[in-house]
Design brief:
The complex is a heterodimer. Chain A contains no helices and 9 strands. By secondary structure, chain A is an all-beta fold. In chain A, a hairpin with a 2-residue loop joins strand 7 and strand 8. By secondary structure, chain B is mostly beta strands. Chain B has no helices and 11 strands. In chain B, the strands form 2 sheets. In chain B, strands 2, 4, 5, 6, 9, 10 and 11 form a 7-stranded mixed beta sheet that branches. A 4-stranded antiparallel beta sheet of chain B has the order 1-3-8-7, with no helix packed on it. In chain B, strand 5 and strand 6 form a beta hairpin. Chain B is globular and about 40 Å long. The N and C termini of chain B lie far apart (about 40 Å). Classes of the chains: A mainly beta, B mainly beta. At the A-B interface, strand 7 and strand 8 of A face strand 5 and strand 10 of B.
């Protein structure tokens, strides 16, 4: 079965750029989506189709996907961005999630 | 705007069947090229996709759960449902219903906690 691998944790200082990676075999040949989940809340879609931002998602969130790695980048990271982030792709008509990465802003 | 709301028992006994319903409001479950999916998340763990259904009734399931899962749709009530049979403590989780396109899960319900315990 297809697997997506994320680092368990990522740390960033306020105002700096955070990069969260998601690795999978030929992931660049698929579309990647990213979800933000804050404690006690439902996940929220922040990036879809590799690079697109849903309405209402700040411009500081961006995405890329090439080769075996998709990357979520948060520019000018704010304290409110501290959350768990999950990548997701489709494979053989099934949804696959990465294990999630906890972003700490310190 | 479209909203999703999960409902169902919060406590299920081991070996029994977990049954949840998702009510869609603000739009028709039959309109657009959307799938309707179930996702679950055990406490402190990651997201697990359970399966999806199209308004026509066609389904896809997570292979690891396929033998125990049934997802159905009732377009007259604008609802879709999840049944998970032979539950164990490992099925204890927050269950989310979502709207999905072919590529992403764009709208999520608030989630409902289901505990499997005698």
């Amino acid at each position: 079965s297809y697997e997506l691998t994320q680092p368990p944790s990522v740390s960033v200082s306020p105002g700096q750029t955070a990069s969260i990676t998601c690795s999978g075999h030929k992931l660049g040949d698929k579309y990647a989506s990213w979800y933000q989940q804050k404690p006690g809340q439902s996940p929220v879609l922040v990036i879809y189709q590799d690079t697109k931002r849903p309405s209402g998602i700040p411009e500081r969130f961006s995405g890329s996907n090439s080769g075996n790695t998709a990357t979520l980048t948060i520019s000018g990271t704010q304290a409110m961005d501290e959350a768990d982030y999950y990548c997701q792709a489709w494979d053989s008509s099934t949804v696959v999630f990465g294990g999630g990465a906890k972003l700490t802003v310190l | 705007q479209v909203q999703l709301q999960e409902s169902g028992p919060g406590l299920v006994k081991p070996s029994q069947t977990l049954s949840l319903t998702c009510t869609v409001s603000g739009g028709s479950i039959s309109s657009g090229s959307y799938y309707w999916s179930w996702i679950r998340q055990p406490a402190g763990k990651g997201l697990e996709w359970i399966g999806r259904i199209y308004a026509s009734g066609s389904t896809n399931y997570n292979p690891s759960l396929k033998s125990r899962v049934t997802i159905s749709v009732d377009t007259s009530k604008n609802q879709f449902s999840l049944k998970l049979s032979s539950v164990t403590a490992a099925d204890t989780a927050v269950y989310y219903c979502t709207r999905a396109t072919e590529l992403e899960l764009d709208i999520w319900g608030q989630g409902t906690m289901v505990t499997v315990s005698s």
